[in-house]
Amino acid sequence: MKEQSFVSDRPNFLILMADQLTARALPCYGNQVAKTPHIDALAAAGVVFDSFYCNSPLCAPSRFSTLSGRQISAIGAYDNAAEFPAQVPTLAHYLRDAGYQTVLSGKMHFCGADQLHGFEERLTTDIYPADFGWTPDWSRFEHRPSWYHSMDSVTQAGPCTRTNQVDFDDEVVFQARQKLFDMARSQDKRPFCMVASMTHPHDPYVIPQPYWDRYEGIDIDMPRVRIKPELLDPHSRRLRHVCGLDLQAVTDAHVRAARRAYYGAVSYVDDQIGVLLAALSDARFADNTIVLLFADHGDMLGERGLWYKMNFFEPACRIPLIVHAPGRFAARRAGESASLVDILPTLVELAGGNPAECATPLDGNSLVVQLAGGAGKDEVIGEYLAEGAIAPLVMIKRGRYKFVHSPVDPDQLYDLQEDPDELRNLASLMPHATRVRELRDEVARRWDMNELQAAVMASQRQRHRCTMPCARDATRPGIFSRSATQAGSMCAMIRISATSRPWQDFLPFRHDAAPTDVAFCAASSYHHAIKMRQS
After folding, report:
1. Would residue 111 show up in a list of annotated catalytic residues for this protein?
2. Based on the number of CB atoms within 10 Å of its own CB, is 181 exposed (0-12), middle (13-18) or buried (19 or more)?
């Protein structure tokens, strides 16, 4: 490649997206354990948002709100099996309209027939199903479908030989790196927006030996908030049921191993980011590219005795946002709260557009003012409408206070400045009565809770009907299959609309491997790790 490269007058965008990466796992957000030199370098020269949140702490809804700039209730993207309507404009649509190439490599968890949503090129398939098989059922809360999380991810945590997630992310980064070089050689002079979306450090908490060994001899920090199950709020107690927390004994050794493997996965993500940043530089794009790093949601990692996400406590919903563009924005830390729905209007403005002219009302606000050193709106609105809930769960974060409301549960109000671990619920205390009343009034203005619950449950019923068998021994739609497709060759997990297997409850797919060579553990109900058999 020649030293001279072809770059646009307008900035390129490289969006680096991790899955289930909590802000507090990164050194640039205060962590003392994780080893992430590439992320550290981005943060040191970039704008770091200290109070950045997802709008819905679950994979697919969070991604759909990011892409659309809208709350999930506005687009019907309630859970991990809700179809993302193809008629909803995304950041990819707006950037294409502005003259950008739009490229997606990796996970986006699109449900439905549209697997592009404005991206003109997709370099990999997805790793998660695109049908309605993971639809929750609020009318049968006690039922635990086979696809629910389990505690296997924690009790079987440790080093492994290989996982399908590593297979997938290796492919994501390989394809994205190659695409950067392809665009550098291309005669297409349009600026680009590339999204490289990895599935790590999402559970299961297993990671290849070299990343496990990277934390050998390191004092792995343990959860700092431990609460007896009977003292948890009602939604947290429901999450214990969803995740099967009371079905297995979880020891401190399990917790420490799970957190060590998680840190190993974070280091794996950091290494992949280093690969892509090096390619960006080698392709002579670095000076004209704005790099954004964020996640879809966080991970509780044992805090409050909880794991994974699905709630509005800080470890689950506070995520990193780093914007690296030293030639445009001076390194700084932005303290005002912001969220993923702000990404779309920010990119539109940075690309030369006007967010006010978007085709649909946006729930987010451009962060360009904060990037330039000004003050932002300092507000986050959240919605959770998936498994573990039995009614809408909403959140308002403004200034130092976070308010969480559900019609079926007591309110929660936390002063994050005085109580960052959310140990003292202020909602019932007299000094905060006026604030709680005002926040409840705001909830009533923003949402019709009865109408929203009816819409969510109607959607669940419709989707369950679409996945029901026709008769005994009929073919079951939506069984996972590794077929002779690109997805199969990458070991990606995809659902297909019909298979030749008889109707049966889904069981984890197992490769035909000699038992003396490898052993498979179902590290969760829908992830599988190849682990060396210990003799």
Report:
1. no
2. middle
